[in-house]
């Protein structure tokens, strides 16, 4: 029931982070090299220096592992090219450069099992919260935007999980208009979003102590109905991360285990949960 520090790293530049759930590998990606943490086999860390190319240099965590192609995808919402990392050749497809200040800090991301497209939701940038699905399909290499504002209020710092052909979305921070100046607040609500047509079903909502936000990802229990997320205070610097359990079909949060000290500095921070 107690969290234990397993390992820590110091890096010279802000890294991108992705997780391979098939191999239980954690990727900490920089501009010239990456660390691969073999959590599944507990065989330590490998350091790889790229033979060619590099990911986008962005301050937001715009990286995802694609299990269908066994690649890392580095993306930028202002570009219509994905820089893809090939593990066999140790190369990126692009020599991607710097990007402008992100428009979608702390958005959620996954690879759709429907058509292997890159799916992102929400985020924050330029005093605005978002409630759009941003979709990138290799067949037509352009970003398409689908507004969900009629069903889900704009937000960032929410948690998502993939279950079948659905994205489950929990919590976050934002407001009805998406404009930062109009009394933003935390959410304690759960939605299911179809990855086939982006139809939204609201599962439940409840009152929550103001200030609690979420890790980027949730974990779905093998029973299919229980979910796990990391929650912490988004309105203070010295805070603590807690593990919470929630149910897909009925409202409520159960606090589990102890806490992890966490220094939260908004867009300068990143928190995630992997199984």
Structure described in brief:
Helices cover 0% and strands 48% of the residues.
- Proportion in β-strands: over 45%
Quaternary class: single chain
What is the rounded Rg?
18 Å
- How widely separated are the two ends? 16 Å
Total number of helical segments? 0
Mean pLDDT: 95
Shape: globular
The helix fraction, in percent, is under 10%
Q: Give, in order, the helices and strands.
A: EEEEEEEEEEEEEEEEEEEEEEEEE
Going by helix content, strand content and strand pairing, the class is: mainly beta
Number of strands: 25
Sheet with most strands:
5 strands, mixed
State the low-pLDDT regions, or none. Answer: none
Strand order of the largest sheet: 5-9-8-7-6
What keywords describe this structure?
mainly beta, 275 residues, five-stranded antiparallel sheet, 48% strand, five-stranded mixed sheet
Topology:
Blueprint: E1 16-20, E2 25-29, E3 33-38, E4 45-49, E5 52-54, E6 63-66, E7 71-74, E8 83-86, E9 91-95, E10 108-111, E11 118-121, E12 124-125, E13 128-129, E14 132-137, E15 140-147, E16 155-156, E17 159-163, E18 166-174, E19 185-194, E20 200-205, E21 212-214, E22 219-220, E23 226-233, E24 238-247, E25 253-263
Parallel strand pairs: 5-9
Antiparallel strand pairs: 1-2, 2-3, 3-4, 6-7, 7-8, 8-9, 10-11, 11-14, 12-13, 14-15, 16-18, 17-18, 18-19, 19-20, 21-23, 22-23, 23-24, 24-25
